[in-house]
Amino acid sequence: MAETEPRAELDARYSEESATAADWSEAVARLRAAELFWLSTVRPDGRPHVTPLLAVWLDGALHFCTGAEERKARNLRENPEVVLTTGTDALREGYDLVVEGEAVRLTDEERLRALAAAYTAKYGAEWTFEVRDGAFVADAGVALVFRVEPRTAFGFAKSPYGQTRWQFTRK
């Protein structure tokens, strides 16, 4: 498990003089509220793969789901290291976040039911999942569920420009 409050550092090389390191609690609030994330995985031949997806923050981690034969799931079987990003496409406003960690598949049905409820609460009834055989099940089929606990995270403020790095200590 990651500690509750990671060590935060402002990188002065990429920050305006008036910038300060952001609190992790602010980053978590943004992760909870973000609707769209970009997941970066690595293909078996080393090429990157990036795709948009939905994710929920619960119990100190981001969670996402994918079909077992989708490119991202196949990549994760070979290399579980991922980056999840979210933010805005604006240059001078908003805030961007980058979360690095290992995608760990979840199969515990009690935990999956809590995550299914979190998806519905965040994204609405069209994102309702049943839990069966250690996975999400919906009209579109079976989806594997992954947890990404942050190892390192970055926050990019845009007014003033500032880059915060959060480093987590594993217990």
UniProtKB/TrEMBL annotation:
Taxon lineage: Bacteria, Bacillati, Actinomycetota, Actinomycetes, Kitasatosporales
SUPFAM superfamilies to which the protein is assigned, alphabetical: FMN-binding split barrel
Keywords assigned: Oxidoreductase
Domain Pyridoxamine 5'-phosphate oxidase N-terminal: 26-135
Gene3D superfamilies reported for this sequence: Electron Transport, Fmn-binding Protein, Chain A
Keyword Ligase: no
Molecular functions (GO terms): coenzyme F420 binding; oxidoreductase activity, acting on the CH-CH group of donors
Name of the featured protein: Pyridoxamine 5'-phosphate oxidase
